Fold:
Amino acid sequence: MHTRAFVVVFVVLAATITSAQQAPPPSEFTALTIYNDNFAVARTTVDLKFHPGLNDVTTTQVTTQLEPDSVVLRNRSNQSTSGSNSSFRILEQNYDAGVVTQEWLLRKFEGKLIDFQLPPAETSARSTGTLQSFPAQIVKGKVIRAGGGEEQPLIEIDGKMQFQLPGLPLFPATTDGLLLKPTLRWLIHSDTAQSLQAELAYITGGLSWQATYNVIAPEATNVTGDQQADVLGWVTINNQSGTDFPAARIKLMAGNVAKIQPVARPFAKRQLMVAGGMSDQSIEDLVTQKTFDDFHLYDLNRTVQLREGETKQVQFISAAGVTITRTYLYDGAARDLQPANSGRANVDEEYGLDAANTKVRILQQFKNTLSNHLGIPLPAGRLRVYRRDSDGQIEFVGENLIPHTPTEDTIKLATGDAFDLKGARTQTIFRVNNNGHTLDEAFQIKLTNQKDQPVTVTVVEHLYRCANWEITDKSTQYIKTDSHTIQFPLQVPARGESTLTYSVRYTW
Structure:
């Protein structure tokens, strides 16, 4: 059996800045401002030492998803990199994200002789071959050519060709162009010998964050009404940038910041969940927020380690005694129909009736105010609602997304459909008077309740025939919520039903 001895050498490269004369130490930490849309601004301080004339400067303190045209390297003392006040001038910048992979090396050795480590059971003595051609790319371990079909590399061994690697390819350690980290290179001109601190800043993809909220409500003693709940808020930070950040100061920007999104690149990374532990400090000491421009900026106020492929969670809200209200809503049309803008009424008798809905939605709402033990801007995210059972255990009862919510706003979200509540919406009158430019329509809405307790259901109706309307008859009072929507509060008895009716006249 053919065997082959080889030595595996693990090379660890520290993130450093080097110049022609000296390799200064890396900065103590990297400052990251992470945005909602899978990108971040990274900033770090580096010490540079120049000799007069041209200097080659290299750094590996960058990510594999860096946007090269976003890079800023500037003297911290004069905040400039060009002009008469600058202490140095950047003549050229090069970025190489081509971190070495087996695919990259096979491409590099196309047409050359390479060694292979044969499987233990292999009896053939063949251990070298010429890589004659290599296809376009490797996807999930399979070689894929540009046309999309599957293809194997073509290997010549002892004058014969085969479409399969005979073993594990072995490459010389002295191969030119090997990169274990993404690299930035500059050609910098300095008029004098000098040492200075420079700020390196750039935009990178692969970093994202989102907010999640858990609301823990007590056992439901009443079907509707106010209850005191606990609200826990977390920020979840995900690093798929291709780079470890051993020490990062993290801020999170909340808001819709305009950003041209690059073409997405696939990732296959490990996932590691890390929960940020709480100390005896108050929440304000751990995570703070401030208004920044037209957005809100959240600061973790501490240095954290953020590894490549890691998902880190940090708690930023812990509030008790938050008043939360459960209500019910029935929208029989099941969609938000808009009134016609042609100046005439929509006289299609079936319009709005083709998507009749029978489900009654469950709504949870609470005010984001200081008096309700909150009162801080809440970034958009997923809100889950749990409720305690009579045995003390918490059960999941629904979730939904909330938008960015400023203070003094009310959070409203639908968490599902009530099992024991049903609705029915029936058109009872439809008359059109084309000469008089009027349309009369009437509806009957019936709600049934199989619960052991009475409930109040808000019935939503959309007046969608035309812009001008008037309620001509009604069985109960209504509230106008906008120019073409009204709401009726309807009491439904336990194990019973209630019916409301109304008539509307449209004119044009």
Summary: The domain at 324-373+407-507 is CATH 2.60.40.290 (Immunoglobulin-like). The chain has two helices and 32 strands.
